[in-house]
Amino acid sequence: MSSAVDQAKQKADEAKKIAEDAAKKTQEIALLAKDDPKAATQSFIHTPFMRGALPFINGGAAGMVATSCIQPIDMIKVRLQLAGEGTTGGPKPTPLGITRDIIAKGKVLDLYTGLSAGLLRQAVYTTARLGFFDTFMKALTVRAEAKDKKIGFYERAGSGLTAGGLAAMVGNPADLALIRMQSDGLKPAAERANYRSVIDALTRIAKTEGIGAWWAGAYPTVVRAMALNFGQLAFFSEAKSQFKDTSLSPRMQTLSASAIAGFFASFFSLPFDFVKTRLQKQSKGPDGKLPYNGMFDCFQKVFRNEGPLRFYRGFSTYYVRIAPHAMITLIVADYLGFITK
After folding, report:
1. Model confidence over 44-53: pLDDT tens digits?
2. Where are the domains of the chain?
3. Nearest residue to 116 via CA among 55, 185, 182
4. Which CATH architecture describes the domain 55-339?
5. How far is CA 159 from CA 152, 227, 237, 257, 268, in A?
6. What is the pLDDT of residues 257-279, one digit of tens each?
7. Going by C-beta distance under 8 Å and a sequence separation of 6 or more, which residues neighbour residue 212?
């Protein structure tokens, strides 16, 4: 009994000392901020908590900057994927034609429909995927250096696939809201939901379809994210590693590696992105049934009714959406990582 009391007292003393040290450290940073704000910032950045959080913060900020730049292209990409649904022939829209149609029916700002959902998605999804990837890579680097080895492509690929899958599950509700907001304008005026914001969209979807509807299309979203991350992060990391011993400047190395990553990310992920868009846009018909029963059913029906090339419709637009997004995200994340070292 006495021993247990002594142990409890010892633990209490240890906890008290930790709390006192933390308070002392906070006070030191506060005093430092008064005398030297720049040094205080650096001191705060190098605390253990911030060192762990920075990859996630940098990733989310980079993704939100990129989304703000390419949102109109994403809007056009979604409209291309939804055109001619269920028919082999059907309309063959062009990116320019869709842009003209959107502007003619409303205004230029309609190209930014769903921006709030896009930003929320980046705040959740890109924060998680880049944060997880950077965390995994640091752990693998430490392990490889301990064995006097270097990280290979397979480790990069594994980190990208895992980070993408985990992040996609967390970000699916925002992704769903984005697709619903962007596809709303395709419906007759009387049937449109006219969502005011991403919060309004998620609230109304939960009320009418249940919370589970937030994860509609989650399976292809996860597979798409894994394919995209495999193409983007693994190839970006590998390309940067290959360019390291070349005469290219650090800036050109990052730019070239991100361009390569954008192509492979587009190629591997577009079919899954196509199916994800179809599943997240669908709503019950007059008979109370959904057009597709899941990812494989959607793949099968599109392949049979619309042809295999339909999965790659709008590849050029998708690449123009993915590549700049990847380049801006990776370049901004690289820069943020540099200034917070």
Report:
1. 566 666 667 7
2. 1-46, 55-339
3. 182
4. Alpha/alpha barrel (1.50)
5. 11, 12, 11, 17, 16
6. 888 888 888 888 889 888 888 88
7. none
